[in-house]
Design goal:
- With about 230 residues, this protein is of the alpha+beta class.
- The chain is about 55% helix and about 10% strand.
- Pfam families: GST_C_7, GST_N_3.
- This is Glutathione S-transferase.
- InterPro entries: Glutathione-S-Trfase_C_sf, Glutathione_S-Trfase_N, GST_UstS-like_C, Thioredoxin-like_sf.
């Protein structure tokens, strides 16, 4: 029986955009594991699996439930050791923790400020009410105020990527000779922006964009299965 991965979607269930869910998708594909993807809107997440988790991704593997993208990766690594490694050892796991911190403290806040109003517009009416209330409270600005600054935020975004560019000078993937979970962490963030943002955050000649395009082609091109924002 295949695993079930629950992931966030917009009003169109084919448009799933959560950066954390994309990490889990890429981890499952990397391991070559069979799974079913169940798209879920924001306001339905608390009802999943008896209220097991307030957030997605949420993975069911038989009788086991796992939440949080990093915990899912650790679970897959431990439970399916015969499949390709997501970390390449303890050093790779430690590096992934560091990059996760960089992504969530530097990259995610920037993409949020750029794309938050666009995300709102992808949602069903009930979810739009929830999303506006929670995000405006969290960000201390209206969605319209945030949207008015998105071009300025997007113009400043490339300078935040210098640590990634530096790494890619020495190796084709953040994980070294091949992609690892550390690549999927940052891929999830850029995929989030690709699917939601009305502003392009990566310049055509940026090495990070070249790397991202290669990530989109991984695992049968699963990253390209969801259309980019118009």
């Amino acid at each position: 029986m295949p695993m079930i991965l629950y992931g966030l979607c917009g009003e169109d269930p084919s448009v799933h955009f959560s950066p954390h869910v994309w990490k889990a998708i890429m981890a499952l594909r990397h391991k070559g594991l069979d799974y079913e993807f169940h798209p879920v809107p924001f306001t339905e997440i608390p009802k999943l699996e008896g209220g097991f988790s307030p957030t997605v991704p949420l993975l069911r593997d038989g009788d086991t439930l796992v939440r949080d993208s990093f915990d899912i990766a650790l679970y897959l690594e431990k439970s399916y050791p015969e499949a390709p490694s997501l970390f390449g050892g303890e050093g790779g796991q430690a590096m992934a923790r560091f990059v996760e911190g960089f992504s969530q403290t530097v990259i995610h806040p920037a993409i949020t400020r750029i794309a938050v109003a666009d995300i709102h517009n992808l949602l069903a009416p009930t979810d739009r009410v929830y999303f506006r209330k929670t995000r405006e409270a969290r960000l201390s600005q209206t969605l319209e105020e945030l949207a008015s600054n998105r071009f300025t935020e997007a113009a400043e975004f490339p300078r935040k990527l210098e640590p990634i560019r530096h790494t890619l000078k020495f190796q084709p993937w953040l994980g070294g000779d091949g992609p690892l979970f550390v690549d999927y962490i940052l891929f999830g963030a850029f995929q989030w922006a690709r699917v939601t943002a009305s502003v392009d955050i990566l310049k055509a000649d940026d090495p990070v964009r070249t790397w991202f395009e290669r990530c989109l082609d991984l695992h049968g091109g699963i990253g390209r299965s969801v259309r980019a924002a118009a």
